[in-house]
Amino acid sequence: MAFNLKTIFSNKDENDGMEEYVSDDRGQAEVTDKMIILEPRAFSEAKQIADYLKKRNGVIVNLKRVTPDQGKRIVDFLNGTLYALGGVIQKLGSGIFLCTPKNIGVEGEISHDSEVKNKKEENELDF
Length: 127
Description:
- There is one protein chain.
- The protein is of the alpha+beta class.
- Helix content is 36%, strand content 20%.
- The chain has helices at 5-9, 46-54, 68-85, 113-126, and strands spanning 2-4, 21-23, 35-38, 58-62, 88-93, 96-100.
- The strands form 2 sheets. A 4-stranded mixed β-sheet has the order 3-4-6-5, with helices on one face. Strands 1-2 form a two-stranded antiparallel ribbon.
- A hairpin with a 2-residue loop joins strand 5 (88-93) and strand 6 (96-100).
- The termini are far apart.
């Protein structure tokens, strides 16, 4: 919200064409977008990942240090968190996921090994 100080504190006859404005920025939090890389060792660390997402930070999660069951639980928890925040989760590689809230845009996709093998087989048939 802005207002003209000249109009409030001076006579209308003294207007020299210069206007001064004061901005009222109260209530607006400074947002710093960061990309955080985490390697959880237990399901209990999923809450920390969710907290980073709630603060509108992107998170790359490496699940190679947890058991497959714990990794599945973490991914399920993060899917629910990102659904509530309007964000997305993308698989970058084996056990590595990119989690982004809606304020961070991601362009492009990474092809997985199985897709690459299928394309190579199709290309071999095209020769």
